[in-house]
Design a protein that fits this description.
Elements (H helix, E strand, L loop, with lengths): L3 H9 L7 E2 L4 E2 L32 H19 L12 E10 H4 L1 E9 L8 E9 L5 E8 L16 H6 L11 H4 L1 H6 L3 E6 L15 H4 L1 H4 L8 H16 L5 E11 L1 H12 L5 E5 L17 H7 L22 H6 L6 E6 L7 H16 L18 E2 L2 E6 L7 H16 L1
Helix pairs in contact: 9-10
Length: 423
């Protein structure tokens, strides 16, 4: 059955020799791509713990004072673009609350995050659930793909005018992504959830910047549209959600977990690299441009992602099409920017496009930065079997199934947060 949910899933994954990305108007090129590990070839990674001047980094103080800023600057210059601060005129407007949500177990809040003093300016529409049984709850945050109303079956969740304006010919996708968000499970374990539709920030298309905040907030943020790209915009949005949580008495803003799936996992990693207030980070099958090593010739490549999604990265990244070995960084260095905060990286066994082995190796090579803080990471350079979570402060699993977020994933994230936040 080709229903709307399946249609979205296909449009979200660039996989197959001839792939049509529904809803984005982009088609993959016909070049072959590799799913054979024996054809990956060798690739030397840039040294994580050595400064530009060749000096070895031996402790966390050196890392924070010299090497971390260098690595951050390289990603900002060559991959994602720089990240601006919060708008001066940003403010929060409570839209509606339901103190008896989820059968009385949670309070559902809808908040509009206004980025300007002008009522007609850009707005990020946020929906949040906070467990009524917890006076001050830790919160998972993340952007969603199909609108806030897709996250849960609760008919009280608003279908926003913004969503309708970009989908004039579609019926509301209510409750189509409940599996990906597991609101009831989170609340039952004492966690809140706050999420917003990613296209409130920038429509996910090549010309999305024209109507997104890269244009509408260019002057107030003091940054030109070309200085950052869509992934940075979406990562920036997580920080604005955290800004609101810092004003919410029932949320523990010191225990906020940034999550992201697929392209939004890429954005979450860059967002957390820029905002150390985010206490823990979950990268769910973020693949190329996320957790996976770019130099590996497996699944999606730098060339393919830049061809299909040129708006995700700044123009400087296109220089490395066909030549990822020339990059001054690789994705293990992005993951290292999360240190010493807890990091969970995940893959799916059937999601070869995202290169599960490359995602694991990205996490493995990032562990050397965690060791500077005395933090334990992954135990071996060899990936674990399916459904076998491993690691300490850096954790990883590869579950059965395809490119998605499942109950199994959330169960691991909740257990990880329980463990890390108890320390």
């Amino acid at each position: 059955m080709f229903n709307l949910k399946n249609r979205y899933f296909i449009s979200a994954r660039a996989i197959g020799h001839i792939l049509v990305l529904l809803g984005f108007g982009l088609a993959a090129s016909t070049q072959d791509f590799n799913y054979d590990e024996s054809k990956v070839g060798s690739h030397a990674l840039p040294e994580l713990l050595r400064n530009r001047d060749g000096k070895k980094i031996r402790d966390s103080r050196q890392w924070e004072r010299t090497r971390r800023p260098e690595v951050h600057s390289l990603f900002a210059t060559h991959v994602y673009g720089r990240m601006p601060g919060r708008p001066v005129a940003m403010h929060f407007v409570s839209v509606k609350d339901d103190n008896m949500a989820l059968g009385g177990r949670a309070t559902r809040k809808e908040i509009d995050i206004h980025f300007t003093s002008d009522a007609g300016g850009p707005v990020l529409h946020l929906v949040a659930w906070l467990p009524n049984a917890v006076p001050k709850a830790p919160v998972f945050i993340g952007l969603n793909f199909m609108g806030n109303h897709s996250v849960h079956a609760d008919t009280g969740i608003t279908v926003t005018d913004t969503w309708r304006s970009l989908h004039p010919d579609k019926e509301a996708t209510r409750a189509l992504q409940t599996e990906r968000w597991q609101v009831d499970t989170l609340v039952a374990h004492g966690y809140g959830l706050a999420t917003a539709w990613y296209q409130d920030l920038e429509p996910d298309r090549v010309d999305g910047w024209r109507t997104g905040i890269r244009s509408t907030l260019a002057e107030s943020l003091g940054i030109r549209p070309t200085e950052w790209a869509a992934l940075a915009v979406w990562g920036w949005g997580l920080s604005r959600i955290l800004d609101w949580l810092e004003t919410e008495p029932r949320a523990d803003a010191m225990r906020v977990v940034a999550t992201g799936h697929s392209r939004l996992g890429k954005g979450a990693l860059w967002g957390a690299a820029n905002d150390t207030r985010l206490a823990m980070v979950v990268s769910n099958e973020s693949g190329e441009g996320g957790a996976a090593i770019s130099r590996r010739n497996f699944g999606e490549t730098v060339t393919r992602i830049n061809t299909n999604f040129p708006h995700w990265f700044i123009d400087a990244y296109k220089v490395y099409n066909g030549a990822p070995e020339r990059l001054p960084v690789d994705q293990h260095m992005l993951l290292a920017l999360i240190a010493p905060r807890p990091l969970y990286v995940t893959s799916a066994a059937e999601d070869l496009w995202a290169d599960p082995t490359g995602e694991y190796l990205g996490a493995w090579h990032a562990c050397s930065a965690y060791s500077l803080y005395g933090k334990k990471g992954l135990p071996s350079p060899t990936p674990p079997g399916v459904n076998q979570p491993i690691g300490a402060t850096v954790r990883y699993h590869r579950r059965t199934g395809k490119h998605d977020v499942t109950l199994y994933d959330w169960q691991q994230y909740i257990a990880f947060a329980d463990e890390m936040f108890a320390k």
